[in-house]
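Worked Example 4.2. Read the sequence first, then its structure tokens.
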Amino acid sequence: MKSLLQKKIFITILILFSILVNQYYGNRGVFPIDSFLHFDAAFNITSGNHPFKDYWLITGPFVDYIQSFFFLIFGINWTSYVLHASIINMVLVLFSYYFFLSIGLKNYYAFIYSLGVAILAYPSIGTPFVDHHSVIFSMMACFSISLAILKKKNLFWILTPIFLTFSFFSKQIPSPYFILLFAAVISIYFYLFNDENKNVLLNLFFGSIFSFLLVASIFFINQIPIENFLTQYIFYPFSLGESRIDRLNIDFNNLVGQFKFIYIILIPLIVSTFFLNKIKKKNLINKRDFIVSLLFLGSVGILVYFQLLTKNQVLIFFIIPISAAYSHAYVIKYFNKKYLIYFILAIFIFTTVKYHVRFNQNRKFIELVNADFNLTEDAVKLDKRLKGLKWITPHYSNQPLSEISLLIDIKNILSEENEGKIIITDYQFFSSILNNKFASPNKWYDNLSIPNKKNKYYNVHKNFFLSKIKKNKIKRLFFIGKNKSEMYFFEEFFNENECIISHQFNELLLEFDISKCKF
């Protein structure tokens, strides 16, 4: 009875903490290209514009669709935007707590490791982001298949392909690598427990069918062409992925130095898994524990590779508390040495504080590590929908009010422009606050999202882009942002470049009038 009450108290604390910690840091500054990535995209969906069909998209649509749901329920505002990330953070934390209990940890230890997950998972960026979604859902798939093996419950076999589907439609990787890992481990599982094979395959099939029907229904209801999806989400990104792998730089610092605490805290788990029987000279490790350990160690390897491949700020440090929980559980089962537990707890506490300060408090992930947060301004000055956001960006870290003033000026200029227009910017909230129904033909305009002339999908993109301009009778293109005004790639799309009339309103806003162009 006491234990049940303690669990309820811990769960309540974890729910509140995992949401509130992310809400707090999600409001602490922004990096426009990342922080606003899904704001206008979700607004586009609520306005009837869908990915692949109405705008070119090479990153996962799942985050956009989930955010559109949050907008429909809670309104189009910054609070509901950050809440999306906070809820995903909460789901991961609660699943982690349940999993930690399932592998043998006591309530108290499962609770403190789950707090570590809450601190290091989503608050590093605070707003919905494809990389965080894809990694978190892949990790939950690892939890799910592990629980299926440990508890022999059909539900977890069913959930595994669902989590992998969510991960894949958040971002193309790392879910394919997890599928390969799971296939290998399931083969070992079938060999060791062949009497359970029939139920396993059946439940994996049910989960896969549910995932397929869910995705197919979204495509069917919104009339999204499969050909567009394959080109934009599979074939074109794959052509980019090949070059990324070729340029992958794996040196000691990249592979070992930045992930050293993950490796160190895994030492007890590795020893338990691979060397225990030799040390004790007995077959001590449980077969199911062995398989679950292989799953997790393989997952860590995939996430490290994923991190190196993406070349973004590190987002996988939340696996440190998860690794600590694994090692702790296996030490209790197979060594029961208190000094090892103290070692694990010391590394866990040190790294949680270290990366919390670096990524959450100092906002390293969103490039604000040198910013003075005493200079932040209330974003409600820009628009009431941004209420709650403490505005400061890397672009104007010393003058956030000047940036807001420029954006207010842009907002007023665009609000007076009634002709067909599209907005090209990293500040992807202007369509929402201006209620602009025309989705930009691209979700974003970096040099990866747009095929260059050497890429075989260049003409496919060009035709897609021009068809949306023509269909929506677009007369003006507005570029917002210092870097965006340098993007002249689309000029070659038109027959007569002289037809383009440009007008620089302020240092952030450039207008291109294409009303006289033929295309």
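Now turn to a second chain, presented in exactly the same format:
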Amino acid sequence: MNLNRQNVLMVDLDIAVKNKMKKFIIFLVFINQFINTLQAYTVNVDSCYIKNQLDYDYLIVEGYRFLLNGNMQMAENIYEKAVEYEKCGAAAYFQLSKIKLIKGDAKSAEYYAEKACLISDNNTYLLNYINILKITGNRKIINSIIKRRLKEGVLDNELIYEYINSFIEENELRLAKKEMRKYHKILTDDLINRLNIAFEMKRENYENVLLILNSSTYIDGEEKNKLKAKIFTELQKNDSLKALIKNGSDLNSNFKREIAEIIIKNEKDAKTDIIKDLIENNIKDIEFEKWLIQFIINETSKNTLKEINLEEFIYKLKNYCYKDSENQFYATLADYYDKIELKDSLIAQLEILRRLDATNVFVYFRLIETYYSSNKWLKVVDICKDAKNIGLDDIRFNYFMGLAFYQMSDYENAKKNLESCLLSYVNDDFKYMVKGLLAEVYYKLGLFEFSDSLFEEVIKYNPNDLTARNNYAYYLAIREKRLDKAEDLSKYTIEREKNNASFFDTYAWILYKQGKYREAVKYIEKAIEIDKGNYIIWDHYGYILYKIRKRKMAENAWKRSCELKNCIFSLEEKLENERKINE
């Protein structure tokens, strides 16, 4: 049976598919920020702020000081200590909600935001809670909170705005209009403008939005331009969009990024000349230009990249944007070639990167992934050996060598490398993935007892590992051992994955081995329905048909199997095989 390639590549140590070169530079920046934060934490971890100072207000001030200095971890520690020692204070809960949200923990952010609101009747805390509820998608809670506050007579501008805007977002436009008229005298002109814009955007009345924007004195220039970028993109007003790009070339990079995202990520295909204008009009903004090139690679299609001829732009920027970052230049080219599926060019850039930094493990794993996807097993082995020869101590190289040797049917070397993986400390997910592959190797070597034992371990660790269940069941069927267990294992897979031909084939073959021929027909035909191009399934189909005396159909199935395998069909040979199966 074939290994499930998807499972093979899912190594739980941030490698292979997940480690695209486009993430490499981001990773370096993240590591740098992490080290800075860690250093700041180390400097202050033994200070008296947490150990001795339990005054609530003082802790709040200290936490805010660390926030301003960019040490979010220390601020979080202080605020958590504050809520531990002073249950009545809302400010620490409020700050913790914001920190948790920044760290991506929306559930905790929602919890702390709610706590702040329960402790203090403060609109700032309430609006923070509402914004977090928006992110977590709890629209019903938002409406419930605001309705209750309005019934209590709290006629706050921002609350009313959120209340009406929620109807607009839910496409309840009639109700939104009704509430706008009801609260018209309470809302400020700025909020009325914003609601009208949201209302018209929802209705896709873009020309009306432009009229509101041009007459509004409350909305600042950057916000106007972001809305205009979206509208011009939707209406495909390319001349207006080009003018906006040109006029915004001297503005700050964050604003330009937002404009670029609006244009490039729009559902309608962005015109290539607009993307070219984005690149050409910002040639002096080095950091923005590097970000833009990477963003275009990540977000646009293969055809769009070719139409833009982005390769030409990358080389054009080599001595300007990338003059002090040669690695980033080749990493960007690698991402580009990967996206347009030029594997030879991708490999060339990765090899250059390897020469520039021979100890960069991410480049090695990227090369391994590329060679693996091309079935170049010897290349995978060579890359792994090179990495180990220069002292890169990473057990994953042994794993990928084991995998490559397995694919080349060199089971002894596969066994040696995979067993070495289990001698090092690794996390459980990785350990059992290695054991799953090692179980396959042991089977190929005829070490059935060891193979069965490892399959049992893997399935016990992860009962939903359908590939391990299927392969173990199939091997038991071939050996005609514990067929009832094999049936249970296989039945589990077809009940949970209804579109996997291999799983249905295995189940049918187990039924065949049990003598349940007519039942087996139903499942083997389901396998063929899913995958008509698998010669093994057609071969099994032939044997099952032969058993129910449909010999002409069996012969046709075997012929089809041979056509797919590109072999010469011999009925006498098949009948001889059938006799051997039943001996």
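Notes for the reader: Residues 395 and 421 are 6 Å apart (CA to CA). Residues 1-53 have pLDDT under 50 and may be disordered.
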